[in-house]
Specification:
- Strands 1-2 form a two-stranded parallel ribbon.
- The protein is 70% helix and 4% strand.
- With 226 residues, it is mainly α.
């Protein structure tokens, strides 16, 4: 028998896990996940002039821009898009806290960095998979993939992989623009690795969760997010 996993719980755990995973990947400095790399580059660029501008702030500002693009592409604005920004704001706030916590981890050797990258990558894929199993609006990254795949009847894992690869290309272009040729920050080998297998990994976690759990609502708020 499958166990019950409340979708609201999946939202909270997914959000915290994703933020912590992102903080671990930033600590590793092997390259950020391609979906957050553009926001990370904005953070690096703006924080040079505005020291108070955090990674979390860059995240929800960039995601607000992405929601606007989604509304233009689909030619509609749904209430769930507004809730998606709220999720982005919560994620950005949690991320800033997690960044400070992960910075306390001692050591900066290659083994410690590799461990941070591995843990961060796994946590990010788990977090995204959980957010795909809740009715509460996910971050703009996941919302974009979810809405596009639903609108055009596409496989969500394949759509995620295509989106990830496009984000990686955009991040490389931003790195060139902000930092000059051959000076990569945020976009490194780890970013390319994420772009290639992130979507597949999320799909595997989703299959695993769906095999062992029934995702059901604990609260009657689903219609409010339609």
């Amino acid at each position: 028998m499958k166990r019950t996993f409340y979708t609201e719980t999946a939202y909270v755990i997914g959000l915290i896990t994703l933020a912590l995973g992102t903080a671990f990947m930033e600590r590793a400095d092997f390259g950020m996940s391609m979906v957050v790399a553009p926001a990370y580059l904005i953070y690096l660029k703006v924080s040079d002039s505005l020291s108070w501008f955090s990674f979390g702030m860059a995240e929800y500002c960039f995601q607000a821009f992405l929601i606007i693009i989604l509304a233009i592409v689909l030619r509609r604005f749904k209430r769930t898009y507004l809730f998606s920004f709220i999720t982005a704001f919560l994620y950005g706030s949690i991320l800033d806290v997690m960044m400070k916590a992960v910075d306390l981890i001692p050591g900066n050797g290659i083994l410690q960095r590799a461990a941070c990258y591995s843990v961060g990558f796994v946590m990010c894929t788990v977090g995204v998979s959980l957010l795909f199993h809740t009715y509460i609006s996910p971050e703009a990254y996941e919302l974009f993939v979810k809405e596009i795949s639903s609108k055009f009847n596409l496989d969500i894992s394949k759509t995620k992989t295509v989106y990830d690869c496009c984000s990686c290309i955009i991040a490389v272009a931003m790195s060139f623009l902000f930092l000059g040729f051959w000076h990569f920050e945020g976009v490194k080998l780890g970013t390319v690795l994420c772009a290639l297998i992130n979507g597949w990994m999320i799909g595997q976690w989703s299959k695993c969760f769906e095999k062992h759990f029934d995702f059901v609502d604990a609260l009657g708020f689903r219609k409010r997010f339609d």
